[in-house]
Request: fold
Amino acid sequence: MKALDNYKFTKDHEWITMDGDTAIIGITAYAADQLGDIVFVDINTVGETLNKEEVFGTIEAVKTVSDIFLPIGGEVLEFNEALEGNPGLINSDPYGEGWIIKLKPANVAEMNELMDENAYNALIG
Reply:
């Protein structure tokens, strides 16, 4: 499994990591496993500035649709267009090719309020 030292996690099972000044956000392997086969990702917030914990899109699996929440506030810069043709990338590589959005953070310090990998693993047991 990929080393997740530079990743932070939310109680709602999103992850975030920084690449320079840009945040990359997705859902955790645990969330992808709980959802099952992901068949569609709907992100219509590109170009919008949202607050921490606001819904930025939805993920549709075979049996359910789930909201996805921003770990920190900022402007949604980009949607991973590879997910349009292959939403299963979230199931197969949630921390890599299955990233969902890129964000210009309003306040990177909000990441300090999130869990590290050990705390997240304790949450999910």
Observations:
- Strands lie at 7-9, 14-19, 22-27, 38-42, 49-50, 55-61, 65-69, 74-79, 101-105.
- The chain has four helices and nine strands.
- Residues 51 and 73 are 4 Å apart (CA to CA).
- The radius of gyration is 13 Å.
